[in-house]
Design a protein that fits this description.
By secondary structure, this protein is α+β, with helices and mostly antiparallel strands. It has helices spanning 26-97, 103-122; strands at residues 6-12, 19-25, 125-128, 140-146, 155-161, 163-166, 169-172, 174-179. It has a domain at 127-180: Nucleotide Exchange Factor Grpe, Chain A, domain 2 (Roll). The strands form three sheets. Strands 3-6-7 form a three-stranded antiparallel sheet.
Amino acid sequence: MKKNSTANKTENVSGGDLNQERNISEDEVLELKAKLEQKTKEADDYVELLQRNLAEFDNYKKRTVKEKDVLYNSALIDIISDVLPIIDNLEKALQSCKGEDQGKIVEGVEMILRQFKDLLKSYSIVEIEAVGQKFSPEFHEAVMHVDDSNYGNNEIIEEFRKGYKLGNKVIRHSMVKVAN
């Protein structure tokens, strides 16, 4: 740069062998630097905005997957709640037929019951353990209470209706008789 605030610059003009000299003042250089800084800041702002949008979209995807799982489990619980009384009746039918000599009926009912239980297992639905366990209001519903020194405190001695759960979510509590 010259001390009189001008700079000499030689540019090669495309398409020919002509050389041109162009004088650029220091003010023009400062103005161009300011514009460059402004455009660099705008580009950085756009990159930051894009990164934020990508993060928000990733969070949205995770949230929708989670919501879908919750909806799926809720729908599954509604369906299984409708199937459980059928299983209860099949179990009662088995109990009433076992004393009699009706092997084919018992065999058929056992097969249907096994199919229902396999269906529940395929959906990760499990029975809640009850008899011999400590009573827990989280999993059991006490409908009877007896004082019996043969059993421990709050021990479940009889199950009237099986309870079921999906993961940690109880679909239906076990209906039980509790001792002491």
